[in-house]
Amino acid sequence: xxxxxxxxxxxxxxxxxxxxxxxxxxxxxxxxxxxxxxxxxxxxxxxxxxxxxxxxxxxxxxxxxxxxxxxxxxxxxxxxxxxxxxxxxxxxxxxxxxxxxxxxxxxxxxxxxxxxxxxxxxxxxxxxxxxxxxxxxxxxxxxxxxxxxxxxxxxxxxxxxxxxxxxxxxxxxxxxxxxxxxxxxxxxxxxxxxxxxxxxxxxxxxxxxxxxxxxxxxxxxxxxxxxxxxxxxxxxxxxxxxxxxxxxxxxxxxxxxxxxxxxxxxxxxxxxxxxxxxxxxxxxxxxxxxxxxxxxxxxxxxxxxxxxxxxxxxxxxxxxxxxxxxxxxxxxxxxxxxxxxxxxxxxxxxxxxxxxxxxxxxxxxxxxxxxxxxxxxxxxxxxxxxxxxxxxxxxxxxxxxxxxxxxxxxxxxxxxxxxxxxxxxxxxxxxx
Length: 432
Hints:
Blueprint lengths: L1 H50 L1 E4 L4 E5 L4 E4 L1 H9 L4 E6 L2 E12 L14 E5 L10 E5 L6 H13 L3 E2 L8 E3 L4 E5 L4 E4 L1 H7 L10 E5 L2 E11 L10 E4 L3 E4 L11 H17 L1 H13 L3 E2 L2 E5 L3 E5 L5 E3 L1 H8 L5 E6 L2 E11 L13 E5 L5 E5 L16 H15 L1 H13 L3 E2 L1
Parallel strand pairs: 1-4, 2-8, 5-6, 9-12, 10-16, 13-14, 17-20, 18-24, 21-22
Antiparallel strand pairs: 2-3, 3-7, 4-5, 6-7, 10-11, 11-15, 12-13, 14-15, 18-19, 20-21, 22-23
């Protein structure tokens, strides 16, 4: 028993010795690794301390844009910044540091204007392409109010060296007159300009100018009309020139507001009506001058009830005589009027060609629809879409508003509609 105890004791001592030896070896290795890391860090810090700041003088700058603060460096300085391991810059003028400790940062996304102005200065490196064939450009982000004196000195030095880029003065505002307008369609709101008017309106990049005013001789009618593209994220409730291949002059954008909820519709409609009333006098002068010059487009097709072969009161399909069909196909009519005994019965019916119209278009009045699918058919309905149930994508409550407006328009032409239906019924042209 005593023998076994001595063996166990000896083995325990051996284990302790082994653990101690392994611990000492591990500690030695760890110290060696830490020593190497510390030495590398010290060397890196020393190198960074030597090379992390770069002094720049006015001779190193090729140009500076006063508005967007874009700096184009000389090729030599550009290469030095791109190849060197710098993260701080100092602008020196007259052998004195002016802007010190400027951070050099990389902006990977678009829109440098979204970068918040820091407490110190930032020279933002962006991959938009600078001047002189350089792949990158540099923009100086700086809070001028904090360094007004230094900024004035900086601008003076750049200007004195002939390296300050200032934008050219803006061209005078576009003044359009009736002579610059070829035609205006009061149904579709399309406005067509003459070649001279179009030349005034468009920039060298084939984009419309944003400072447009309409004059009647020397009288200002509409000043600084807003120009919008065909697609925009928020509505406008004042006179707007819509541009999308063609130009449209309308009371607001978008023209159709039925994709909005009822409360928004009411708000948009109310604001548009108020603004329309404010310019009513000048608008009437505008339309009268165009009308006197024969520039108001009135693409109205006049048909008589005798041109109708049949009308289906359930499907709204209307079949026209061949002569009327030929008239309809001869031009892209915008409105249609039906005459009875030499007098207009149903006037200014909107004509919609479903091949050309936008699917979201809504009309809550009498509409003449051309359906070109498979074979051409025509429909005379109380609104478009025919059935409000097909407009399920509208906001809640919009269908009720559509029906209310349609019913109101039906009541306004109730007498004329009854005469129309009675004549077709007496002539045996009604399909029930």
